[in-house]
Amino acid sequence: MRTTTRNCPRNSFIIKSLYLKLMSDSPVVDWEAIVHKNVRSKDMADVGNVDALETDAIVVITEGARGEFRIPKTQVEAFDGAEVFLKSNIAELKKYKV
To answer: What is the strand order of the sheet 83-86 is part of?
Structure first.
């Protein structure tokens, strides 16, 4: 017996998401989806959580709101659905501290 998944809505969603990701210059297809997600630097250090979005930047607050960063969206390397990964290491992020 042959099973077909051609008309499966889930497969359609996955294919559309992959297509949008491949065709987009942006590492994030839906910027709203990264709000409240964890952020990691290039050296895998925990930076904090995305608190807000601006036109050209993400606002990240550290644990306990002790620090705040305004990081340009161009510094975002990837988003895996759970975490945002940056192009800069933790030392380089000091220049984005608010």
So the answer is: 68-72, 57-61, 46-53, 38-40, 83-86, 76-79
Does residue 7 belong to any structural domain of this protein? no
The verdict on pTM exceeding 0.70 is: yes
What is the phi/psi pair of residue 70, to 5°?
Answer: -115, 100
65 contacts: CB under 8 Å, gap ≥ 6 = none
Q: Is residue 2 predicted with pLDDT exceeding 80?
A: no
Tokens describing residue 73: 């969206």
Assign residue 76 the CATH number of its domain.
2.30.30.240
Asked if residue 64 is part of any domain, the answer here is yes
| Residue 1 predicted with pLDDT over 60 | no
